[in-house]
Amino acid sequence: MFKELAPLLRHRAALFTVSHVEDDRFRVNVIPKKITDGENDALTTPVSVTGTIEDLDRDLPQTLLHFVSSHLELKNTLERAKAYCFRGWR
After folding, report:
1. pTM for this one?
2. Where are the strands (E) in 1-90, listed by range?
3. What is the mean pLDDT of the chain?
């Protein structure tokens, strides 16, 4: 699980919560923290996964891999757009 999160955690902190939902189901939330006050809120969109312990053991690493990949892609896109806007306004 942490191997999949490492690329995200190298650049920002993340809050983890794990809670019992019902019967044998649990929910894991990963919430990226803002780096600066002016940072785009989209970069703090959480991921939430609910399932049995077996489901989480099996599916959570792949879900986190996709989440981190999408997060980094969005971060890069926002940086390119910001750079383009500033270049275009000069």
Report:
1. 0.79
2. 14-22, 25-32, 47-52
3. 91
